[in-house]
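Recall from the previous lesson that a structure prediction takes nothing but the amino acid sequence as input. Here we apply that procedure to Caspase family p20 domain-containing protein from Rhodoplanes roseus. The sequence below is the only information supplied.
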Amino acid sequence: MAWRKLTVAITALGAFAALSPATAEPRMALVIGNSAYQAVTELPNPANDAKAMAELLAAAGFEVTTAPDLGQAEMRRAVGDFAAKVAEKGADTVSLVFYAGHGLQVDGENFLVPVDARISREADVPLQTVRLTDVMNALAAVPSKTRIVILDACRNNPFSEINKVVGRGLAIVDAPAGSIVSYSTSPGSEAEDGSGANSPYTGAFLTVAKDPGVPIEQAFKRVRYAVHQATAGRQTPWESSSLTADFAFFPGVATSAPVVATSAPVVAATDTKPPTGAAGTGKPGAGPAGQQVAAISPRGAGRSVDSWRSELRTKSQFEAYELVVRDDTLEAYQAYLQLFSAAPYQTRVREIVERRKVMIAWYTAVTVNTPGSYELFIAQYPGTDLFGTAQRLLGRAANRQIAIATPVAVGPVCPPAPVPAVQPTKRRADRSEKPEKTEKPSKKGRRTAVRDDGPPPPPPPPSSGPPVSIGVIGIPIGPIGPRPYGGGPVVRPGGHSHGPVGPSGGMRGTPTGPVRGSSGPVMRGGPTGAPMQRGPVGFGLR
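The prediction returns the following tokens.
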């Protein structure tokens, strides 16, 4: 196995021994540190960061699995095995994943880079890396009490071939319910590897997390301000939280610290209202079915700018600056800019605000994912590092809408076969009488009984010539056509043949000869049913 798995036994430290039964839930951690990259320059600190983090988590009661320098297949396997272990522990487990190494964003999606990745074009990124979404989904699929993901992964992009077609840093990710995701720097920004034994982010976390009783959200706020100060404002950690349970790394009572007491979310909506537009018009703001593309925030709205301004008025510039950096919302930053103008803090805050607006607008564009959403971003931020990506995704979304709107021909459509017209059957005037029956021909000859049950149904129209009457009763018959065997004409009463053609050229049962077994032609047709007069001109039917 290429990657080395190490299970760190839980040490009987005093801090862990003080865990109360209420807080002694199962704790599982996976720590990945990718330093030995094969296609790009190695990173010195991820290996050190992973080792120090594993020791801290073990002291905090976690059963830690370390997996340094993983390739893509090994990284995916490690995440899958870890999720299986969490599932075995039960639904009360706290699961934590720490990753240190390179990270990239492509088309608004974040990727963690294994050590064996060789990326020469943008299309290589999803094929040779691990999606952060896949890691989050693997954890979310396992019932657990709390899920923590810590990413020290926003270092500069080492793959120069794609530097111009992907954005800087990582994109905004909204944490699933019961989770918190912490980044070593703000969305769209790059983190520093640091010149010491650990990166600025991991170094600050190792110090803050040891404080007893500090809720994890407050711990990350303290880490943010410490890193921001240590890097002179170049790096400001960021997190997205949807936690549903309290958590602290070490038990105890939190010491008093200048922490902003607010329930405001980490990311707030911009105050920019997008213009409206109709779908397909090419105007910014166009959305599906003519709907307006509104700014989407991955978190709900927090305190208003006016509320923050009222609080900051009573603070000094330095105190106000520390408060807004810890809180890290646009409303807090905007209130600070309205009240204070002295450098260097005013410049740092303004840079954070401008970049945060860009990244929230980018989050909105890729979440809506329509031509209108990308047109809006292009119109608002034409000079950013995400402009080229927005143009490419705009073309992709437009092509997708064209494909949806254009019907696809499955094959030639044949017209249905014509249905023959059905001639209505004429009903009898007297329904009490039984329908006409045809007697079966005897062995001696074929005979057809004709009953005088009223006028017969009208025959189908002849193809040519008027109706012909035979004998004295004037029965209409069909046209006279040629004999099938070359003889004289064949008489078809009512358009139907009543027997084969005889050798003499006449039809059996016609006046040319009597019916076999009888003394002469007989017809029944009188009003009383009495036989009619026999004669040589009678119609030989019975």
